Amino acid sequence: MTRVFSGVKPTGHLTLGNYLGALRQWAETDQHRADSLFCVVDLHALTVDHDPARVRRLSRQAATLLLAAGLDPERCTVFVQSHVDEHARLSYLLECVATDGEMRRMIQYKEKSAREQVRGGSVRLSLLTYPALMAADILAYDTDEVPVGEDQTQHVELARDLAVRFNHRYGQTFTVPKATSPKVAARVMNLQDPTSKMGKSDDTGPGIVYLLDEPEAVRKKVMRAVTDSGQDVVHDRAARPGVTNLLEILAACAGGDPEDLAASYSSYGALKKDTAEAVVEVLRPVQERHRELCADPGYLEQVLRAGAEKARTMARPTVDAAYRAIGLLPA
Ligand code: TYM
Question: Per the residue annotation, which of 183, 197, 273, 310 is the catalytic one?
Fold first, then answer.
């Protein structure tokens, strides 16, 4: 059976981008067709300035939202990364296989480290080595497929390269994974700046639709989305990024093809109104389940405990095999 692994980082409140680019596929497709694991990757949240209490709160919230989005613990394994030591154990071995140059080439590292320096802060070493930990997340589980939004495909490519290199040097140990992304909305853009990704860790609130935004807030954000200077509705990411983003969101939420939808609108106002309502409808059931789950925190604890136990037994043999293959003495 195909093995699927993916994760979400608790560095902010989850967004519509997280949902359309990743969570929805996990819930609607992956958990039904594959042996799948979904993880709140909390160790990754420590790579930038963080408040410990906030990371704990966001980790719990992200896990609740994974269930609210429809992940069923009877069908898939839901857990928290730091509960399973194998991720950190394997990450170190992969740092010994990766090169400094390939880590520095990662787009996300370049962007985030540049931003950190502009703020006058220092760049944590873990921000540079982040992709080794992400590769460990994936490779520890003999993963075949990694469903992610477009912004993560470069990291999954690196995980592939590391798996191939390790196998070549030290003998067949890892399954070589590949990234999969949804056909539409694989890169949802910021509504206020449609040339940059809608990211949960950004500070531009009005451009980001959060999964737990009230319907009125969603409507306001979509209606105020920055559009382009022309008047006609055209799907063209380079020339008309604002309108194209709305068409992609509408297509992902209400169905249809973004290019066909473009032909059925003659004004930005109508497009925005329909997009806002489509987003509200998509978020409604997630928010309802989220409310129910919050009323029973014991259930979440129990799911995460069982998930970690299962994940541990799955990861340990592969990570132990990697330790032996690379030359470490068995304990
Ligand atoms: P993270 O937490 O930034 O995002 C979680 C998932 O949501 C997708 N995503 C988007 N998709 C479309 N449009 C957007 N605007 C958008 N923003 C986010 C991401 O592509 C991702 O699939 N490094 C990862 C977490 C991670 C991981 C892993 C993922 C750690 N280890 C192992 C897969 C496998 C990250 O920061 O995702």
Answer: 197
Same domain, 224 and 250: yes
Q: Please work out whether the CB of residue 138 comes within 6 Å of at least one atom of ligand 1.
A: yes
Residue 165, in any domain of the structure? yes
Averaged confidence pLDDT in the chain: 96
Distance 118 CA to ligand 1 centre (A): 24
Please tell me the distance between residue 263's alpha carbon and the centre of ligand 1 in angstroms.
31
Cβ atoms of 307 and 78 within 8 Å: the answer is yes
Which CATH number goes with the domain that contains 250?
1.10.240.10
Query: According to the annotation, is 220 in a ligand binding site?
Result: no
ipTM: 0.99
Assess whether pLDDT exceeds 70 at residue 204.
Answer: no
- 260: domain range? 205-291
Residues 6+ apart with CB under 8 A from 67: 73, 78, 289, 293, 300, 303
Q: Known catalytic residue: 112?
A: yes
Q: What is the pTM of this model?
A: 0.97
Q: What is the CATH number of the domain that holds 63?
A: 3.40.50.620
